[in-house]
Amino acid sequence: MMKLPFFPPRAARLAAAACLALALGACGGDGGGxxxxxxxxPAPKTxxxxxxxxxxxxxxxxxxxxxxxxxxxxxxxxGGDGRYSITIESAPPYLLKVSTGSxxxxxxxxxxxxxxxxxxxxxxxxxxxxxxxxxxxxxxxxKTTRLAGDTVTAAAKRVNANFAALYTAKxxxxxxxxxxxxxxxxxxxxxDAVLDGVSVSxxxxxxxxxxxxxxxxxxxxxxxxxxxxxISFSGGGTTSTxxxxxxxxxxxxxxxxxxxxxxxxxxxxxxxxxxxxxxxQQVVQQYGGISGGVSGPGVSLNYSYSDLxxxxxxxxxxxxxxxxVLKSKGSVSVSGTASGITIPPTTTRxxxxxxxxxxx
Length: 360
Prior knowledge:
Layout: H1 9-17, E1 46-52, E2 63-67, E3 73-77, E4 83-89, E5 94-99, E6 105-110, E7 114-115, H2 120-129, H3 135-140, H4 149-162, H5 164-169, H6 191-196, E8 198-204, E9 209-215, E10 218-220, E11 247-256, E12 259-269, H7 277-287, E13 291-296, E14 299-313, E15 323-338, E16 341-358
Parallel strand pairs: 1-7
Antiparallel strand pairs: 1-4, 2-3, 2-5, 5-6, 8-9, 9-10, 11-12, 11-16, 13-14, 14-15, 15-16
């Protein structure tokens, strides 16, 4: 059984400090070295988006389309339970759409790979974030006109604030539940029961849309300027409860000096998974913002990190399929020797995303 620190600091130090940046490129990035033969260009990096399309009832056996920031699109099919999965060339952020059996088109957003549910509430949040302009036009013009993730998150918080009473009645915490990225089932329970209790209809001209919203049978006047005090969700919550005995899969994606990297490690024990932003920050501080040395078989290096930042997106109660996302970026300057090679002072800029997914 493999057991890793939740964020592999020593491995990351050794790899980055050796200018390999987790097996990416030669020392110095674009600065040196020649090759006597041709090289095969790396395959384009891809991202996978998955989630549930539902209005309460599952949007079953429907075509889901996603478009990336470069204007490329990909499609997939939802299952009988509304679940879908699509792989697309990596170019976030992403906009998604699906047509329900009644002909209504639902929309969603994803700032990165991972979970992206598609529901009337994701559609309502995008209606708000986009200034009540037609979402069909936003989808078609996504390459040149996109929404910022922070804008979408702010609108999602307003959705939760507007329907806080309904959330609470159905046993869902409106302060922590991110309906864009929190895994749920179209089973009439929890958040799906919230969807059963809300209807959203948009009526659009060529330049603007108006909304008709009902909670139960009553028409609801949506408050686009409602206070969101206390609502702090991010990827399903800013903390995580890691169940004893659970197993997880870690996928590391990112780049060093612009060169892409991706690796997946399975069978990670629950004790090696981060439970909070504080824990993530403490681990980053094991190597972040300091200078020091690393030594090992064939390796003697001095390193210094700068401009480090980290973010944490928790998964709340962390059911099977839930994800935790830790992001870390900054610069590392290194000098020394590795495998008999002298490394002159070299700086590498890195940006990594660590995605933990509960598998059992």
